[in-house]
Amino acid sequence: MEINDLFPEEQFFAISNSEVPWFADITNFLAANIIPKGLTHQQKKRFFNDVKNYFWDDLFLFHRCADQVIRRCVTGSEISKIVEHCHSGPTEGHYNGTKTTHKILESGFYWPSLFKDAIRYVTLCDKCQWTGNISKHDEMPQNYMLSCEIFDVWDIDFMGPFPSSFGNKYILVVVDYMSKWVEAQALPTNDARVVVRFLKKLFSRFETPRAIISDRGTHFCNS
Q1: Does this chain's domain 20-131 share its CATH topology with 153-220?
Q2: Which of 70, 157, 161, 178 lies at 20 to 30 Å from 94 by C-alpha?
Q3: CA angle, residues 56, 57, 60, in degrees to nearest 5
């Protein structure tokens, strides 16, 4: 039969135009024990030192990273899709370059220029460039959180006036900031004298606090 030479030519053409992965030398050494040619003594020494962190397992190459997590090595054709998915995918939030890199590592992928490719992709992302950086104008106002222990800080205020009940028209309420413990007493007036009398009873039970927070009304101003 006449030999059909189209099939070999097509195969050679496909091989010549296919992308050579960055880990081709490492794969050849681990799978077939083939040492790359043309390497100097220093390059061979570095190659054998780097290849210790790679593993070949059934058509996939894995790399043990600095955090001792084994991740799959990917080729150049997969890199753009992985970065796009981890940065602007349906479940992602257009993070910066560092956060996008962490998302890629959490997904279990690795290649040598991972950090540079992620930062380059973020700088070329149109949506990220339109958003820009967060300025002081965009920040939410934050209230100071007072750090204290139980019964160290009390909040005090009057409630009322209410309709007279047994001669009492006001309720003096104090609340502990930490435990939310509430102390209350019905009083006939809301002057500083009854406040001092109430606080003496409070201090004898819970000791003297570090601070008492009030609205600085006249009934809380007393030497």
Answers
A1: no
A2: 70
A3: 80
Helix (H, G, I), strand (E, B) or coil at 52: helix
Where along the chain do its domains lie? 20-131, 153-220
**Considering the domain 20-131, what is its CATH architecture?**
Orthogonal Bundle (1.10)
Per residue in 64-110, pLDDT tens?
888 888 888 888 888 888 888 888 877 667 778 788 888 888 888 88
Percent helix, strand and coil across the chain, each to the nearest 5: 45, 20, 40
| CATH H-level, domain 153-220: superfamily | Ribonuclease H-like superfamily/Ribonuclease H (3.30.420.10)
Taking CA atoms, 173 is separated from 17, 136, 168, in Å, by 82, 38, 14
List phi, psi (to 5°) of 175. -130, 130
Q: Which pLDDT value is given to residue 7?
A: 52
Per-residue confidence (pLDDT) for residue 186, from 0 to 100: 93
State the Cα–Cα distance between residues 187 and 43, nearest whole angstrom: 89
Confidence of residue 146 (pLDDT cuts 50, 70, 90): low
SS3 134: coil
CA–CA dist 59, 222 (Å, integer):
83
Q: How far is CA 127 from CA 101, 121, 123, 124, 133, in A?
A: 18, 11, 10, 9, 12
Residue 103: its H or E element: helix 97-107
CA 105 from chain centre, in angstroms, equals: 14
